[in-house]
Amino acid sequence: xxxxxLISDEKLKQIANKVLDGNRISLDEGxxxxxxxxxxxxxxxxxxxxxxxxGNNTYFNRNLHIEPTNxxxxxxxxxxxxxxxxxxxxxxxxxxxxxxVRNAGSDITEVHIVGGVHPKWDVHYYxxxxxxxxxxxxxxxxxxxxxxxxxxxxxRAGMSVxxxxxxxxxxxxxxxxxxxxxxxDEEIRKQICGQKDTAEQWLLxxxxxxxLGIPSNATNIYGHIENNWHRVEHINRLRDLQDKTNGFxxxxxxxFKNKNNELSYLPEVSIIEDVKMYAMSRIYLDNFPHIKAYxxxxxxxxxxxLLSFGVDDFDGTINDSTKIYSRAGANxxxxxxxxxxxxxxxxxxxxxxxxxxSIYNVIKEY
Length: 366
Ligand code: V47
Ligand code: SF4
Fold this sequence. Notes:
alpha/beta, binds ligand V47, binds iron/sulfur cluster, TIM Barrel, 15 helices, 44% helix, 4-stranded mixed beta sheet
């Protein structure tokens, strides 16, 4: 039994007890808890759920991030990554991408491929790359493309999203990362990435993937012009979809980073806001098995702290330089961590490091 929670606010106490009893809280209750719960209360609730679901385990994998191009048909206001007029860009060839996987060595178990939405590349262009990757490394897991990339490359090949996903699966796609969700609220979305696919389309791509047996991840971007209600409403839509499909593995809160983009005038939120967002995600998403701290973005120290606030997954060792965040001012400018460093970081937080594969099967316990 847990000690009685000493809170004078009766409504807050009722919501906290509901969480501790293992009952689902509503959108209104989630917003009330977010607005009125202090860090210690949210931390206590999130850590309790984290330990009920995942014990002392903290998962990581060994992966390679490849960003094929920064050419993009869109221009999201928060994005520091897409090639602006007059800037240098890159477009890796199919052979270069396959070569990167070959050079990464046999200890890598996953390749994560996400980039700009190139005007000319389609399902078959990327499919050829997948085919060659799988022929070089049949065992490697290919996790690729945000929902907006999937919509675009399917359409470009004259296919529906379902046909596009089915074809990508046949070429070797194993799962879909969580990017591109941003913020689902239509008004806020319009203001920060108005040209991009709608929230409904993001959810449809992931629902279709789940129906085809392709698991996926989910994200949000928090800390720009949205408020607590928008944040909870976003994860509420994810919780609803997960009830239907059970295809999400993990939720990854992404902190808005403000360097070199059109929203640079906005300050970044404090570490208190970061910790509260992660804790609320763990509390609210009762049907998501895992919550991930993407350490190249949030920094390894804060990621370590978050292991006591709901997080049980550390992403991967990431032995390359991902630019999506370094250009936006990420806490880690050249993210690379060896397995030994990862294991030490997790142990130093009092947690048990577990190397996993991309769908959370245990590879090695440390
Ligand atoms: O799609 C872009 C977001 C995403 C900024 O699924 C920004 O395992 C904050 O989705 N501030 C890419 N966020 C990263 C991503 C991801 C990373 C690690 C693991 C997984 C996974 C997914 O980052 C983009 C966009 O939603 N983003 N710019 C920015 N300035
Ligand atoms: Fe393009 Fe993705 Fe950047 Fe939007 S977030 S501009 S879709 S690369």
